[in-house]
Amino acid sequence: MTQNGSPMTAVIYARFSCSKQREASIEDQLRVCRDWCRREGYSVVAEYSDYAISGRTDDRPKFQEMIANAGESEIVLVYMMDRFSRDAFDAPIYKRELGKHGVRLVSALEAIPDSPEGIIYEKLLEGIAACESAKTSVRTKRGMEGNALKCKDNGVRVFGYRADADGHYQVVPDEAAMVREAYERRISGETCGSIAEDLAQRGVRTYTGRPCGYMMVYQMLQNEKYKGVYFFGSVRREGGMPRIVDDGTWDRAQHVHGKKRRAAESWGDFVLSGRVICSACGRTMPGVSGRSHNGLKYEYYGCKHCDMKAVRRDWLEGETVEALRSILSDRDEALRIAQMVVDSRTDHVADDERKRATAALRSAESGMRNLLAAVEQGILVPGTKERIGQLEEQRARALRDLESLDACKLDAEVFADFLQSGTLLDDRSLLDAFVYQALVSEEYVLVTLNYDTKKLEPARIELSRVLTDCAWLPGQDSNLRHAD
Predict the structure, then answer these.
(1) Other CB atoms closer than 10 Å to residue 318's CB: what's the count?
(2) Residue 128 has pLDDT above 90, yes or no
(3) Which of 168, 176, 208, 273 reaches 20 to 30 Å from 345, CA-CA?
(4) CB count, 10 Å around CB of 236?
(5) Sequential DSSP letters for 154-210
(6) DSSP class of residue 269?
(7) The pLDDT value given to residue 42
(8) Selecting from 3.40.190.10, 3.40.50.1390, 2.130.10.10, 1.20.58.630, what CATH number does the domain 8-140 have?
(9) Quick check: 291 and 429 in contact, CB under 8 A?
């Protein structure tokens, strides 16, 4: 009781984190705190509870509400000090904020004396809570990394999969069919928004219960897990989970731009956009499409800055593709191009990864040799067994990384087969891969390619814009048309 006879007041704050506790622990904390208040003569004026939120963050709704309402009671009562905060910096900041309003923080189970010694004891409790939280975080991360090395889900949900009893991903047939459909529709040129709208109407929902939206489809089309690549944190395993789409489908979906849609019609996609250059002014010739006054569709690459004659999209792209396929039909030329790609990857892509993995392997093996030599000499250091386990895990990880790098090596003969296969390399992929730019003049188009000739000069294709095979059209005076 206070000096004027009115009961002393308290608010109770309770919290549990998602990692180790259960929702029922909130009721346990509140029950203990209520009993303490009845025993000590305090009247409870409010109760605040945060569910499944770590004490290492102050981003807790009810915690912040309690701080904002500071002054409604004389004390804030918690089950133990670590319920208030597990962060070494947050705890004193918010205790000071409570103190500005004349409010003390009290623990129901930890008897902190109201004396200078009590300040030391309270600081020790705060430090212990922060230390235990940090250790819990390390243990949790270590456990999750161990799960990742076994390709377990670690609580990460992916549309199209479910976790089995052992935590491994298994395909959900109905959802997987929708994933494959989304990839095929994207490859055909449909936009992510259009696909999402249709899936939402068919009842597809995110894991938070919201209708399927643009971001869900966009992330679905970017997710390598659908082609069997498991990844979590720094762990990445090719073939670590069942695939839903093949590599070719996944790769094609990464290079698609939504087609223009006017009045539900199908319009062409300007594959060479940004790479068609006007020889007269040196500026790019963007794609232009629409209908003429008599309703005919047209699609051109045209210059907006000078009077350079526009070039038809289908003619430019079609002639370029035909010329490229003619080049690749020569086995020696296809093999030469493939070897350049293989040499480029070998020189620039995997060197750093291989160096890191090799250094980690040498370090692990050297450390294990040193420890075993010390044990043979009778030198036993605390933690030797645990350190050997860590080094074995490091060695295994380095070997897996090196195996993955070896598996990613390109074979020139196999890649040449791929380049020569008309079914695997579609027109768009061919243009994207080989065309650097197309320089347009009135008489010809000079297409520069992304590789060099045997003379180490940029490879080029010259397409003539001048009609050479002509025929007379009856009833038309002096009107020449192409024989096609």
Answers:
(1) 12
(2) no
(3) 273
(4) 15
(5) TT---TTEEE-TTSBEEE-HHHHHHHHHHHHHHHTT--HHHHHHHHHHTT-B-TTSP
(6) -
(7) 93
(8) 3.40.50.1390
(9) no
> For position 411, what pLDDT does the model report?
67
Cβ distance 463 to 341 under 8 Å?
no
Confidence of residue 82 (pLDDT cuts 50, 70, 90): confident
What separation in angstroms does the CA of 322 have from each of 128, 312, 316, 318, 432? 72, 15, 10, 6, 14
Q: How far is CA 58 from the centre of its chain?
A: 27
Q: Distance from CA of residue 244 to its chain's centroid? A: 18
141-199: pLDDT as tens digits: 665 677 777 888 777 888 989 888 888 888 899 999 999 999 998 988 888 888 988 89
**β-strand 169-171 against 161-163: which pairing, if any?**
antiparallel
- State the pLDDT at residue 268: 66
Between CA 207 and CA 211, with CA 210 as vertex, the angle to 5 degrees is: 110
DSSP state of 399: H
Q: 364: part of which helix (H) or strand (E)?
A: helix 351-376
E runs forming strands in 199-313: 229-232, 235-238, 261-262, 265-266, 276-278, 287-291, 297-301, 311-312
Strand partners, 237: 230
CA angle 438, 442, 445 (to 5 degrees): 25
CATH no., domain 161-253: 3.90.1750.20
For residues 138 and 58, give the distance between their C-alpha atoms in angstroms, rounded to a whole number.
20
Distance of CA 483 to the CA centre of its chain: 53
Q: Provide the edge-to-edge strand list for the sheet that holds 75-78.
A: 42-50, 8-15, 75-78, 104-107
Encoding tokens for residue 134?
A: 């940090």
Tokens at 43, concatenated: 């009247």
> Which backbone phi and psi does 15 adopt, to 5 degrees?
-155, 145
Distance CA 464, CA 446 (A): 9
Radius of gyration of the chain (CA): 34
